[in-house]
Amino acid sequence: MKVTAAVVDEVGGPFRMERLDLDEPGPGEALVKIVAAGVCHTDEITRHGDLPMPFPGVLGHEGAGEVVAVGEGVTAVRPGDHVVIGWPSCGTCRNCRDGEPRYCARLGEALCGGGRLLGPRAGRTALRREDGSPVHSHFFGQSSFADHALTWADALVVVPKDAPLDLLGPLACGISTGAGTVFNTVKPGPGASLVVYGVGAVGLAAVMAARLSPATTVIAVDRHPARLALAREFGATHTVDAAETDPVAEVHRVCGGPADYALECTGVISVVRQAADSVGMLGTCVLVGGAPAGAEFGLDHLSTLWGKRIVGALGGGGRSETLIGTLVELHRQGRFPFDRLVRFYEQAEIEKALEASRRGEVIKPVLRMNH
Predict the structure, then answer these.
(1) What are the residue ranges spanned by the domains of the chain?
(2) For 198, what's the count of Cα atoms within 13 Å in the CB-facing half-sphere?
(3) What's domain 2-173+317-368's superfamily in CATH?
(4) Angstrom distance (rounded) from CA 354 to CA 356
(5) Each residue's pLDDT tens digit, 309-361
(6) pTM score, two decimals?
(7) pLDDT of 38-93, one tens digit each?
(8) How many contiguous H segments (helices) and E segments (strands) does the chain have?
(9) Does domain 175-312 sit in CATH 2.70.180.20?
(10) CB atoms < 10 A from the CB of 90, how many?
């Protein structure tokens, strides 16, 4: 079938709208009409070469839409279902079997191999130009910067039909990454202190999730006063403007010593060290933000040796169905108002959306597809 997609031809190249041919669903696959797709920092760093997605290709990994066709053997979803496209995984490695598909042993191939991960057409792209030349597909199993996407059916999360489908795409990655890191990785106990470095979409989702936990001190650190004001509305008990004060010293002052947990949501290496220095003995610093390829950071050996934990977190951990379903219900209850982070753009306005995000004018851009 013919689809309209935003194609990147080469590393660092622009997004260009093109008409492409998309395969019909084969065994285990589903065709999803994309209603809207979130625009994430990961899309931006991938087009600049920080993830090894081959080009030309179609990015986009926060898609939500309606199933319009399924391939042979698919029973988990059916045409007409409203879905969020979750992360792909092999389903058979030890981590997948242990309930941690975000850490699938084939994760790199699953996210940015440029073709299908599973099935009889594994490794093959689903997109072609009219001259027959291939365009790489299945970024995060979906390539949803298009009006239709071919996905592995088992990765789809069915959502209620009365849920606002155009809002739900960011639950596939950015929003679930922040919230899931709190729910699944940090799991703060009663009276815990938690500091979030960088309150963009991921960090603000973490703040919202922390408000739903027993943590009693939630500190937001950023350089944008407007985002800090939002963080306070969403549950931060304290805010720190890193442009005006030493955030580590301020965290220690607020907590009366080191914090129990720090979430580093910026991917800026100097901030990684600040987040690590914000926690002390038996404290945990969680690396959430994506840094440029090859980035390295240093730590003080002695203070880290004294029981400090530095851990990475991908996509919020856990299973897509459980995490996304929980966030949809919390939003319905008015307890997780991530809709306030979203600004909508037309599909062809992807460069405009990215530029507004870079300038800090919008927290979570979402592209509405034209049908």
Answers:
(1) 2-173+317-368, 175-312
(2) 22
(3) Medium-chain alcohol dehydrogenases, catalytic domain (3.90.180.10)
(4) 5
(5) 999 999 999 899 999 999 999 999 999 999 999 999 999 999 999 999 888 88
(6) 0.94
(7) 999 899 989 998 889 999 999 999 999 999 999 999 999 999 999 999 999 999 99
(8) 12, 18
(9) no
(10) 17
